[in-house]
Amino acid sequence: MDFSKAERDAALEDIAVDLHLDTPAVDAHHTIATQMWGHIKALEYTTGRLLAVGRDAEILAGSPPGAPRTLDGLTTDSDSPLPKDIADQILLSGNLPEATQWPHHDLNLEPVDASTVEAAGFDTADVVIANLPYADTRALTRDRQIDIAMAHHGLIRQALTWLRPGGLLVALAHRQLLDGTDAQPRRSIAKHADLIAASRLPASALRQAPLLDSPVDLLMLRRREPGHPPSGLPFIRRTPVRVHAHPDMLINECYAVAPWAVLGDIVPDPVQPGMTTATPFGGAFGVDLGDVLHDQTTIAIDFKLHAQVRPTPRPEPLPSPADQSRGPAPDTGGPAL
User: Which parts of the sequence are annotated with region: Disordered (predicted)?
Assistant: First the structure.
């Protein structure tokens, strides 16, 4: 039986999803948590409510590897096994860990329904950790590229509604969200949040398996308070970047202006023409990730993009009717006093 390229690519995408579900990434997620939480606390997110969703949500929230997991106690009504993607669907809630505590041994997250969060009122969480599904899988067909960008856009928009103004969303997202040809998902996010930190992990950083080598973006998005103009890193457009001896290629502008935030060498993607990937420098990526987050969150603090809610800007006073009608003073021709 002969398969077209589109059919073959779609079959490979299905294999990538299965491999993603079957291949653990606990060690990589622990490395990310180890690096990011110090900077979350430096941004003064040290009290309030924490929500976490996605695979290894508790690990990313700071629970040490080997600690009891919420999924361990979940069962179905029958004896059938839990669906493989159940971890992507469970929302966990708890209190933010203390500022001086690491790892978060006393972290207590309980499963909650998203509708319960919404019924309790939006704008309640201080920090949301979201490990978006299938972030490292290959998107080989145009349909899949659009679908995953729109899915991650929708999940980020939903998570932003859970945050109070000034709250922080930390998301692991598919590179298609930032590098996709359609800027509308990014434009939609930028209407509500400022990107205060972004780092692209090297290919295969999460899982060493075929078709799981799409570079993943770690994004820190702060929900903007009403009345404030956009701030933070630019991320709506794609910008040409010179890649060694190859013609200029497009990459998200947040990386074009700060290529050091890509944790690897920026090279042409050997599988997807017109896209770039990040080949590892060698060794673990944790230290490099910590350096990037330190530099970016330091700048965010300088611009007051941290946990404290900024007051609503006072509008410039309009001139009074008397001032508008007075007009310029007549020129008497005398000396200026």
Answer: 307-337
Measured distance CA(248)–CA(74) in Å, rounded:
50
* Average pLDDT over every residue of 121-144: 92
| Nearest CA-CA partner of 204 in 307, 289, 135 | 135
Joined together, the tokens standing for residue 337 give 């006093």
Position 37 pLDDT exceeds 60? yes
Nearest to 129 by CA among 242, 51, 196, 17: 51
What are the φ/ψ torsions at residue 298 (nearest 5 degrees)?
-60, -45
- Residue 77 within any structural domain of the chain: no
| Residue labelled with tokens 């017109």 | 274
Question: Is residue 75, in this structure, part of any structural domain at all?
Answer: no
Q: Is residue 262 part of a domain?
A: yes
Provide the sign of the torsion angle of the four alpha carbons 58, 62, 63, 65, taken in this order: positive
DSSP letter (8 states) at residue 230: P
Domain count, the chain: 1
CB atoms near residue 233 (< 10 Å): 22
Encoded tokens for 246: 């190859």
Q: Are 206 and 28 in contact (CB under 8 A)?
A: yes
- What residues make up the domain containing 100? 5-69+86-326
pLDDT of residue 80: 62
Mean of pLDDT values over 14-19: 96
**Helices marked H in 120-225:** 142-162, 175-179, 184-190
Residue that the structure tokens 């997250």 belong to:
109
pTM (2 d.p.)? 0.90
Centre a 10 Å sphere on the Cβ of residue 252 and count the other Cβ atoms it contains.
Answer: 28
Contact 183, 261 (CB under 8 A): no
**Whole-angstrom Cα distance, residue 157 to residue 188?**
8
**Average pLDDT over every residue of 77-92:** 74
State the average pLDDT over residues 97-111.
Answer: 84
C-alpha distances in Å from residue 168, one per residue of 17, 43, 45, 91, 276:
29, 9, 8, 16, 28
